[in-house]
Description:
InterPro entries: EGF, Laminin/Netrin_ECM, Laminin_N, LE_dom, LMN_ATRN_NET-like_EGF. This protein is an alpha+beta fold.
Amino acid sequence: xxxxxxxxxxxxxxxxxxxxxxxxxxxxxxxxxxxxxxxxxxxxxxxxxxxxxxxxxxxxxxxxxxxxxxxxxxxxxxxxxxxxxxxxxxxxxxxxxxxxxxxxxxxxxxxxxxxxxxxxxxxxxxxxxxxxxxxxxxxxxxxxxxxxxxxxxxxxxxxxxxxxxxxxxxxxxxxxxxxxxxxxxxxxxxxxxxxxxxxxxxxxxxxxxxxxxxxxxxxxxxxxxxxxxxxxxxxxxxxxxxxxxxxxxxxxxxxxxxxxxxxxxxxxxxxxxxxxxxxxxxxxxxxxxxxxxxxxxxxxxxxxxxxxxxxxxxxxxxxxxxxxxxxxxxxxxxxxxxxxxxxxxxxxxxxxxxxxxxxxxxxxxxxxxxxxxxxxxxxxxxxxxxxxxxxxxxxxxxxxxxxxxxxxxxxxxxxxxxxxxxxxxxxxxxxxxxxxxxxxxxxxxxxxxxxxxxxxxxxxx
Length: 461
Ligand SMILES: [Ca+2]
């Protein structure tokens, strides 16, 4: 059950992405946080930058509508068919499942016909504006990895703003403006993402590309994430090193693709004519059948798994980090300031693990950012390395792992992982030495004894 909650539907994501857009799958790196390697010193951990897989984030959001009673059907009302303003006998009735259009129908599985959709009340109070805010909240920072795609069954709105929040809905910034006439609606010149460049990629634009007329065949509005990636990674996103490099060094760029909430502000429904037809106001409303948001939990490159439990997303932090976004070092692992992992160098990045605090290991460790230097500090000096892990029981012969940096060995054993007999090292093993055979007592007992006597004298490394 626990496993089923993991955000790992990679196969589905492959299918979706290969169908949805022409880009190659380019986000498959950084899927391991650490591996074991063998060195002269024995088995040690090799750490890498890591992140959860990109997935369908609509499964983990909460949706809120404002005004809260804007959904059609309470009381029941009739509306006109799409494309035929004189056939106004369609019914919306919230109390009848077949005729209801609740918000969750924006996020259910699409692919059947006819589509299922959320629908607002009609514009019967014209000329009072018909405006609706749809807020999508994750209660967690997420990083967007693909276009946001909204499918309208009502014609695309004449005016709409997509907004984002980075602080759980306390403050909002516009992401993109959409209008049939940008100048008239927002006093902005119309632009397309294609008009932007590496230097202007963060510019907030108004686009007329997705608001053309009531009778248009296209129902879809995009917020173009991948077109923006392409300014750095090339049109087919092949040069991801360049994008990763930019994301690493430019916080503003990283933050641009990071959100905790999205808000779709529907400001004016599809009209498509100069005048609103006041005799048939039931032809004006909003209806959305699908919203796609692909992304991943932001874990600062310190986790590959993001767990959804109790309606909450949380990174399963590695590299001795902790917090919902792995945004700080664990207690007793503050030997150097916390730092996010780095995408560079490609393909493994740099883990920037948190290391034990000075007080827990004696001498202050030196920080070596060089990568991938297997013989660097973390391996060559086992007193300061993360050499063991209690979960994986690496210490042998009853040894116990002490702060991930050393094994506490029973008196008769030595070696990084307590793998050697002490007498072998001294060349004194023999029938009379009393050390030729494994010591009496169970490993667990010896382990307990070693832990109880765990002073510097017993730290056998
Ligand atoms: Ca639907």
